[in-house]
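Box 4.2: Ligand-aware structure prediction
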Amino acid sequence: MDLSQPDGLDRLVDALAGPGWAVTEGLLPPATVQQLRSSCLQVHAAGGFHLAGTGRASQFAVREGIRSDEVMWLDPATADAAQQAYLQRLESVRQAVNRALFMGLAEYECHFARYAAGAFYGRHLDAFQGQRSRVLSCVYYLNPDWQMDDGGALRLWLDSDEAGPYHDILPQAGTAVFFLAERFWHAVQPAQRERVSLTGWFRLRG
Ligand SMILES: O=C(O)CCC(=O)C(=O)O
Ligand SMILES: [Fe+2]
């Protein structure tokens, strides 16, 4: 699915209404993807990342058995040009989804994520139990020339059964994956090389 095409957002909306997930290309031009990668690596080199946790607020905990990536939340107030271009595209996705599917998505929050070689994120759901605020997940990959042998695929289970069918997606620069946060269990496989991305969630208000 190519989001640079005029019917791209319509096709994305159809996929979310149908199977509930989509793998897309063409969200942004390759030069912008490269700029996002550079700003991610720069912030990391400057020490701007911290070890990711699970849970929110008082339930927040760093549990190394579950995930071992590092993250840095994007602040729209200080976003550089490439980050702003990304946030604007995700805003048009938000509006298209709300118009067609009445999902009532109120906002988008996202972070850069960096998985060092060998880092992983075990099987999980993005929506916290008992909370419906994270509705739609989006993972945007920033890794040029990713090979099958590099590992690091996102494994998306197509139903809740761990033994059931799944789809593996390579974290190739320019690929964006969208999926309904409460429905799809997923995991990040360890990779042979550094793996960076922008991961975010459309939320309901409140
Ligand atoms: O990087 C990915 O492919 C998925 C990351 C993820 O599942 C998360 O941050 O919740
Ligand atoms: Fe996730």
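In the box above, the bound molecule is 2-oxoglutaric acid. Residues 124, 126, 186 surround fe (ii) ion (ligand 2) (CB under 6 Å).
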